[in-house]
Each structure stands twice: as C-alpha cells, then as structure tokens.
Amino acid sequence: MRKPIIAGNWKLNKTVEEAIELVEDIKVKTMDLDKNRMPTVVVCPVFTAIKSVADILERGKGIYIGAQNCYWEDSGAFTGEVSVPIIKDLCASYVITGHSERRQYFGETDENINKKAKAILSHGLIPIICCGETLEQREAGRTDDIVKNQIIADLQGLTEEQVAGSVIAYEPVWAIGTGKTCDSAEANRVIKLIRDTVAQVSSRDSADKVRILYGGSVKPSTIEEQMSQSDIDGALVGGASLKAEDFAQIIKGAMLVSSPN
C-alpha cells in the first residue's frame, strides 16, 4: 500500500519568525496523532526559513522539510539560484519542481523540470513533480493530452526505481488559489491517467508504487472525499497549509480514510 503524503507549500509567505511560530503550532496540533497511521507530512517554507524550521522539527521525527524549488547544477555562476546540495545541507528531504507558478511566471519548461528532478534524485532527495492544465486547456478538452505530455517529458530518462521513489502532484492550474476545487471523481480520473502514463513510460510496478497527490484549493472540508478515491495518495496544500489548525485538520482527515503501512 502506498503511504499517503500531505505536503504544505507555503509559497512566498512567512518570515523566519513567522515560520517558526507556524511550525511550532503544527507540531503541537499533531503531536498526539498515531504515528503509525499518520501520513507522511511535509512542510515547504521559503529558503531562508528552512534551517530554522528543520531545527524545530528534528529531521525524520514525523514532519519532513521540503524546498519549493531548486537549480539543476550543483554550483557555478548562477546568481540567485539554490542547488540541491545546499538544500540537502539545510536538512530538507523533498523538493517541489514544476509547480504551475514556476511554469507560468518564470518560464520553466518540462526540460528544466526534468533536469531538476534528476538533480534532486541524484542527491538522495525526493522530487514532488507537479503537472496540470490551465482553464483554457480544460475548456478546450485538452486536459488529458497536456497532462500526459508533461509526465512523459518530466520523467524522461529516470530509472524505474527513481520514478517509484518520486512523488507526482496533479494541480489543475484553474483550481490553485482560486477557491475552486476539482471534482474528486474527476481529479481521480486524471490521476489514474497519470498513473497509466507512468506505466507506459516506466513500468507497471513503478506506476503502482509512485505516490500521486491532488493539489488545488485543498481544504479540511474536501480532504476526506479526495482521499477516499482509488488513486489519490494525498494532497499538496497551498493556502490552508499557512493555518496550523486547517493543516492539522487536513492531516487528520486523511487519516480517517487511509491506513498507511
């Protein structure tokens, strides 16, 4: 059985002091949960807060740290970038790559995302590889083609073991930060399509093992229905991850409908 993941993407929010306050609150609100049933929980602060948050959480003890982005080269003349070795040195275990905001605002391509995924894996960290369609693409009936093509390109050259150890997040762009949530059955249909595409480009075994999350205005009120679907393995949470009570309720909601190993 695939162990669920609840990951919080804090985006460009929270100073170091605010990040410490938030993660301490999350820690308190989840400390009494059954660790054997608790999903893998990941928080992704801004780069400047990663080390401070990691120091509070004690790596590997219930809540993991993720970065929101990385560069694919280890070092060099790349002003303003942060490499995977530097992120690893900060005690992070996960790195988000391919988020729609990186694609939309910073011109990231599937080729870039593939390079980043390879760099993340080469240093023993876990990529959270995002994919998803815009509203215009959905209304044009192109959702399946867009998502399949993204997955094919983003996973190119990865071994079966690397694919199985990665995390994929389906985030319909039109549902991110809008308050709109993709219907759970439809989200599950697209995620099953992603899983079938993984089987085609890698193997059925890796497709069965890879964890695929839903992201897009995830809330405490939606998580149980989402997690009850056959192929949804968790959530990449945006705005609700900035409120300790909401994030804790999402974790608890996931626990009500899943029994991870």
Report the span from N to C terminus.
7 Å
- Strand percent estimate: 5-15%
The main sheet orders its strands as 1-2-3-4-5-6-7-8
Low-confidence stretches: none
Mean pLDDT: 95
Number of helices: 12
CATH class: Alpha Beta
The tally of beta strands, per DSSP, is 8
Q: What's the number of structural domains?
A: 1
Overall form: globular
Q: By CATH's scheme, which homologous superfamily applies?
A: Aldolase class I
Round the Cα radius of gyration to an integer and report it: 17 Å
Assign the CATH topology.
TIM Barrel
Output the structural class.
Answer: alpha/beta
What is the N-to-C succession of helices and strands?
EHEHEHEHHEHHHEHHEHEH
The main pleated sheet reads as: 8 strands, parallel, barrel
What's the SSE blueprint?
Blueprint: E1 5-9, H1 16-30, E2 40-44, H2 50-57, E3 63-67, H3 84-89, E4 94-97, H4 100-106, H5 110-122, E5 126-131, H6 135-139, H7 143-154, H8 160-164, E6 167-170, H9 184-201, H10 204-209, E7 211-215, H11 223-227, E8 234-237, H12 244-256
Parallel strand pairs: 1-2, 1-8, 2-3, 3-4, 4-5, 5-6, 6-7, 7-8
Brief descriptors of the model:
about 260 residues; alpha/beta; TIM Barrel; 8-stranded parallel β-barrel; 12 helices; globular
